[in-house]
Structures are given as structure tokens and as C-alpha cells.
Amino acid sequence: MGPFWPWKGGGSVSQHTKNGSPLPPGEGRRGEGSESAEAPLRREWGVLSCLTRLKAAIIPGVLRAFAVRSGFAALGAVYVALGIVSARVALVGAQRRDQGMAVALRFLLEQPRGPWILGAVVAGLAAIAIAHAVEAGAGRGGALRRIGLAINAVGYAALAWTAARLLLHVRETGPSLQRAGVSWLLGERWGPAALEVVGAAVAVGGLWELWQGLRGRLTFRRDLLPRRLGRLLAGVSRFGLAVRGLLLVGVGYFLGRAAAELDPTRVRTISGALRALSHAAAGPILAGVLALGLAAYGVHLWTLALLKRRV
Fold it and tell me: What SS3 class is residue 71?
């Protein structure tokens, strides 16, 4: 045993000092003195243990919140760009008639400091994709919530890859990732039913966002803003939520049609649903209003990135 180990029993060594003289009365047991000396050490180890547990509990939450808020900011930039591009096509007749997420990402790349902007978008989308994938695989929450997180993670990752491919000038060979995935899914025996379930889930999510927009059930802290600014952002957010919810219902409808007809070309993204609605009776006017709603939804995402209560 080491020199600092307390002796347990009596004996000649424990009863005498190093020079052999007897110890003063009351100091014959070294265990009592060592216990009092060890008390500060125990307290120090207790504090370190508490700090370690606190760090293990707080740091993952802080990192997750940063990843989710970064993803909201990146996706907000994409939706603002998508709204601007779609509004130009619908209202003023831009020369380039194509729309979609890829065009919105290219619009961001063409801006001053475009590569930096698009690089930040890639980082934010990748961060929120990883956060949702980890949360979906951690087993917390119900099955429906975990499935929704997994679907979101796949969507964010696909959009991040599209942005990264555009940033790095990597050309896409063959069919798009979306078309290839739907074609593979419809080729499986269980694929059409799974695609119908996904379409129904997307439509339900769209109805929920539409309801949020109509009722004004917002999740950011308006009390931190001046009253007029809070009202303005609330109105913009409600408009954006209602428009995106309506378009998501359209996306779910087209997914159901693709499953029923076994035709992957029936699948539409949000921009595809916008183009489909632009062929309605109102035509360009309706398409322009919906495009502005997409830009408003991007502003709503920026507001969530800064002021959302819990992420």
C-alpha cells in the first residue's frame, strides 16, 4: 500500500512517529485524520462529476439547437430564392422559364458572394439533416414522429447534395435522384402502397401547415420584438404557412396519382405543384401570389431560426 493509505488497525507503526516517539494523545489513529483530509477531495470529485454530467446533458442539446436553427436559416434562403424566381416567371415573364429548387440554388450562386452563400446553405442543410437523422434513430418519441424526422432528414440531405453538386460544378448523369428513387419504389411489390402512405402523410402535413397559417398558431416569440414588427412578421409567416401548406397538399395528391398509375413522371415537387396550379383559371396571377407566399415562408423560416421557442 502507498504512503498515503490510512492504516486500519493499531500497532507500533501507527502509534509512533517516524523517530519512534509516541504520538500525542488523540492522534494514535491515522484513519480519522485521513478521513478528514479526504473530505475536500471527495467534494472536489463530486463537483467534477456533476460538471461532467451537466456538460454531457447540455452540449448535445446546444449542438442540436444550433444545427436545427442553421438548417432553418439555410432552407429559408432557398425558399426566398424560389419565391423570387417563380414570381419573376409568373408576373414579369423572365427569359428563363424553368423553376424549381435547382434554379433557386443557381439564383443564390449568381448573387454577389454567391459561392459563400451557397456553401453556407449546404452546411446548414447538412447540419439539420444529421440532427434529424440522429434524433430519428435515437428511439425517442413515437413512431410517427421518428418516421417524420427520417423523411425530413432524407429531404434535407437530398437538397444539400443538389446544392453541393451545383457549388462544385458536378454534372448530373442519368435520371435525377428523385426520379430514380420513385422508379425503384414503384418497381417493388410493396412500393405503390408505401408511396400512397407517403403522399397521404405529405398531404396531412400540408393541411396542418394550412391550418397553422389560417389560425395564426405560430411558434416564435413575438414578445421579444417590437409590437409592429411582431405583427408584420406574424402576417408574413401566416401567409407563407398557408401557401406552402396548400402546395404540399398538391404534392401529396401527385404522389398518390403516381402510386395509382405506377408512373414516376406524375411526381411533382413544390415548384411542380406551383406550375400545375398556374394552369388554372387565374393563371399567372395565382402563380404570382403563390410564389410570393413561398418567399414569405422563407422569411418565416428565418424568424424561426432566430426566435423559435424550442427546437
Answer: helix
Please list, in sequence order, all residues whose beta carbon lies within 8 angstroms of the beta carbon of residue 186, skipping any fewer than 6 positions away. Answer: 192, 195, 258, 259, 262, 263, 264
Residue 165: closest CA among 107, 104, 118? 118
How do the domains of the chain map onto residue ranges?
60-173, 175-297
CA separation for the pair 117, 223 (Å, rounded): 30
CB atoms within 10 A of CB 161: 16
Residue keyed to cell 423572365: 94
User: Distance between CA atoms of 152 and 146, rounded to whole angstroms?
Assistant: 10
pLDDT digits (tens, 9 = 90+) for 65-108: 899 999 999 999 999 999 998 888 776 655 555 567 888 999 99
Q: Which of 209, 296, 213 is nearest to 252 (CA)?
A: 209
- Yes or no: say if 85 and 143 are a contact pair by the CB < 8 Å rule: no
